[in-house]
């Protein structure tokens, strides 16, 4: 009788221990979601938001802002690696790309720049910030069965044309808010594509 009671007590303790272990495992797997990879791609530059970049271009005034003024606004190819210099030949290819292009269809500022020949040059701004965060089931992600990624950020683009170092044309665009989701499903998990690797 004493042994039966003792065995019953041990079984009860063992059951409680199993439940605690199982609960701890579930909590641990839930916490593992925070261990999923995150990555960030930020181009080096003076702006933290799309609005800051737009405000810098808003201060550019055609037929008034000079190349020196652009430096003060952070629009200097020498110090901002996200600004490319467009030469006259590149601008010709971009705006007069074939014989059917009608000059009258082009902006007056573009024509003014092209008329001065090699004294015409452009600045092309391409600035972007993206953050990629994986989310979802940790084990499914770890073993490559299913991976979900959230992508957020913004992208700013602009073109400024200068004739004799004075701005004669500007245009801005881009995406103020990027919010995308990617999902990949691999039924074979870590074995997905193994056959292709073997027979290469």
**What is the average per-residue confidence, as pLDDT, rounded to a whole number?**
79
Q: Which radius of gyration do the C-alpha atoms yield?
A: 30 Å
- List the helices and strands in order: HEHHEHHEHEEH
Per DSSP E runs of 2 or more residues, the count of β-strands stands at: 5
Strand content of the residues, in percent?
25-35%
As an assembly, this protein is single chain
Look at the helices and sheets and give the structural class: alpha+beta
Uncertain parts: 26-31
Number of helices: 7
- Coarse morphology: elongated
Helix content percent band: 25-40%
The largest pleated sheet is described as: 5 strands, antiparallel
State the end-to-end distance. 69 Å
Number of structurally distinct domains: 2
Features:
200 residues; elongated; alpha+beta; five-stranded antiparallel beta sheet; 32% strand
Protein described:
With 200 residues, this protein is of the alpha+beta class. The protein folds into two domains: 1-34; 36-198, no CATH class. Helices cover 36% and strands 32% of the residues. The chain contains seven helices and five strands. β4 and β5 (166-185) form a beta hairpin. The N and C termini lie far apart (69 Å).
Short account of what is shown:
With 200 residues, this protein is an alpha+beta fold. Helices cover 36% and strands 32% of the residues. It contains 7 helices and 5 strands; from the N terminus they run H-E-H-H-E-H-H-E-H-E-E-H.
Break the fold down into its secondary structure elements and pairings.
Layout: H1 2-31, E1 38-42, H2 50-58, H3 67-72, E2 83-86, H4 88-95, H5 108-115, E3 120-135, H6 138-142, E4 146-163, E5 166-185, H7 194-198
Antiparallel strand pairs: 1-3, 2-3, 3-4, 4-5
């Amino acid at each position: 009788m004493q042994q039966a009671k003792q065995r019953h007590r041990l079984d009860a303790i063992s059951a409680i221990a199993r439940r605690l272990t199982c609960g701890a495992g579930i909590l641990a797997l839930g916490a593992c979601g925070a261990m999923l990879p995150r990555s960030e791609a930020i181009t080096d530059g003076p702006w933290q938001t799309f609005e800051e970049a737009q405000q810098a271009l808003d201060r550019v005034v055609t037929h008034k802002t000079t190349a020196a003024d652009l430096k003060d606004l952070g629009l200097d190819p020498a110090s901002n690696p996200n600004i490319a210099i467009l030469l006259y030949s590149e601008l010709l290819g971009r705006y007069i790309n074939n014989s059917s292009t009608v000059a009258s269809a082009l902006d007056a500022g573009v024509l003014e720049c092209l008329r001065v020949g090699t004294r015409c040059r452009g600045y092309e701004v391409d600035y972007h910030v993206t953050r990629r965060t994986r989310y979802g089931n940790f084990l499914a992600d770890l073993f490559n069965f299913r991976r979900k990624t959230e992508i957020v950020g913004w992208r700013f683009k602009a073109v400024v044309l200068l004739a004799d170092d004075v701005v004669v044309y500007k245009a801005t665009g881009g995406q103020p808010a990027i919010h995308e989701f990617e999902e990949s499903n691999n039924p074979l998990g870590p074995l997905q594509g193994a056959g292709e690797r073997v027979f290469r």
